[in-house]
Amino acid sequence: MHVVLAGGGTAGHIEPALALADALRRHDPTVGITALGTERGLETRLVPERGYELGLIPAVPLPRKPTPELITVPGRLRGTIKATEEIIERTKADCVVGFGGYVALPGYLAAKRQRVPIVVHEANARPGLANRIGARYTRFVAVSTPDSKMRHARYLGIPLRRSIATLNRAAVRAEARAAFGLDANLPTLLVSGGSQGARRLNEVIASAVPVLQRSGIQVLHAVGPKNELPQLDTMPGMPPYVPLAYVDRMDLAYAAADMMLCRAGAMTVAELSAVGLPAAYVPLPIGNGEQRLNAQPVVKAGGGLLIDDAELTPEWVRDNVLPVLTDAGRLHAMSTAAAEFGRRDADDLLVGMVHEAIAARRG
């Protein structure tokens, strides 16, 4: 069996694709896997690092909304579709699995022309253009939110890295806190704005840290590699404040934390829910509003808080995040609610859908 994965561009597209690749290999070590990508995407580094073949195709950015530029897309897609068809033919692909982004649409169109089964995975609550088109060509559509309006949608969740999907936070908490130089027993807030939108969170938390410390809260702060580390004057004897440019072991960061202040990207929401870590979600105020929609289900279930970017202030952190961190009963209840909403087995479920799609075509 050979599977072509179309999920290049951003980590939000690539990571679920690689998690599926890992799961496919667990189920069948002989399966062939080729990931589509472009020269400008993160996949040029991430895919080879994970040991998978990368098939490069020309990049054709898609407008997020209907614009005059949309008229030019079909013409620009022709060469990309042809290049994708060549990869499908060369690998004798049995299935194309798309995750949205630049490479998904040519993947779907090439697969349709080659009569190769298509599986669509949509991570966001509000689907993108590529996946809305792809869903027209298949009844095998996996989604990350239970109330998705996509055609043929099945709620599977988002495939996660095994280090996250199998994480037992309580079992490794002591090790995780020691690794970051944190106190073993103090309530801990993890802060990260991800690859985008970190600066605003950084500014707010830098002002809120003294109040948090005086209340017995320690802070682990991933500021983002493009941002300067905050220089805060911490009084002796205060709980630790640990700023880092980048955290490459998010499983340990999640294990060290009792709560997180973060954006609401689909992967972030899925990971925090899976490991049962409550969060204060601050949707990035750009795009089509999908981050707010991503966070709403787990917040509604009781596993998090939701605050607009414009309303996030040090005072809001003091009045809303601090009371959770200092209330062990409330923390436990929110953690339980998040974990009950989360899905740890989406990778295996998506493997099942891939096999189902292939079997349906062969049958």
Protein topology:
Elements: E1 2-6, H1 11-27, E2 32-37, H2 43-49, E3 53-56, H3 73-91, E4 95-98, H4 104-114, E5 118-122, H5 129-134, E6 141-143, E7 153-155, H6 162-165, H7 169-179, E8 188-192, H8 198-214, E9 218-222, E10 241-244, H9 250-256, E11 259-262, H10 266-275, E12 279-281, H11 290-300, E13 304-306, H12 314-325, H13 328-341, H14 346-362
Parallel strand pairs: 1-2, 1-4, 2-3, 4-5, 5-6, 6-7, 8-9, 8-11, 9-10, 11-12, 12-13
Helix pairs in contact: 1-14, 3-4, 7-9, 8-12, 10-13
GO biological process, one term: carbohydrate metabolic process
EC number: 2.4.1.227
Binding site for UDP-N-acetyl-alpha-D-glucosamine: 10-12, 124, 161, 195, 291
Q: How would you explain this protein's 3D organization?
A:
The strands form two sheets. Strands 3-2-1-4-5-6-7 form a seven-stranded parallel β-sheet, with helices on both faces. The chain folds into two domains: 2-160 and 344-362, Glycogen Phosphorylase B (Rossmann fold), CATH 3.40.50; 163-341, 3-Layer(aba) Sandwich (Rossmann fold). The chain is elongated. The chain is α/β, with parallel strands linked by helices and 363 residues long. The two termini are 16 Å apart. The chain is built from 14 helices and 13 strands. The mean pLDDT is 92. It is a peripheral membrane protein.
